[in-house]
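User: I'm putting together notes for a lab meeting next week and I want to include a structural view of one of the chains we've been expressing. I don't have a solved structure, so I'd like a prediction I can at least talk through. The sequence is below, exactly as it appears in our construct file.
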Amino acid sequence: MHEQAVREAFIYAYRSLVEARYDYDTLQAKHPLPPSFDRERLERFRTFFLTWFYPTPEKRAELDASFAHLQDYIRHPDKLLRIVIDSGKLMLQLGRHLPRVVQSGLHTFQSFLQATRFEEHIIQEAIRQQIPLPISREHLLTLLGTLSMEDIDRFMAHNEALFATLHDQPLVQKILTLMKALIAKMEERPQTWAPEEVQALRFGYELLQGGNDLFNQLSLAEQEQITEYILQVERSFWEEVVFSNLTEKK
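Assistant: Thanks for the context. Below is the predicted structure for the 250-residue chain, given as structure tokens.
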């Protein structure tokens, strides 16, 4: 079984699962939405996550190099800090907030990368089990049930961290300021920073800007409502996956 074919099949199957999970009528029947969230508002959130966290295989192919560099930034934050230290203007702008801003920006990267990190486990498991392609919903749920509770808990923790960041509007603005300045500095030094490295940071910037634009359309109360709502839906989904897996093993 060709690994790339399995990867593409998994991405399409998981995107379909997310689309179905956040269908307006399905949610209303199972987890009634907050009163101010109509179909249009829900669709904006669903489109955001499908665009940035679960992109199509074609888009993923474009972003693979960026993914690798995003992980490199997380492992070696000093690479970004060197640029910050070289920028006196940036130091003045962010001052004592700088360490928290850098750390929060890296956490945002981690939230995104965690959404694709369990992919390798699923792909290898699909190959091991000789799952037929395209992957059906039933087979996908079975594969997801092979994930460890540690992986699922980590995934949920990163989701919560991302929402907490997006909810803190002043912090988001500082992170965006930092990332925009870093991109400009890197573009000034093409002999030092490869285009893929710049693109990785630009991708992170656009992801965070998209989330910020989404939250800016909501009042603070609505931001809290939708954050807790989505986390509740995700917790419920993963609890069902784990429970079904345990039941099948008995």
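A couple of points you could mention at the meeting. The two ends are 30 Å apart (CA to CA). The mean pLDDT is 83.

User: Perfect, that's what I needed.
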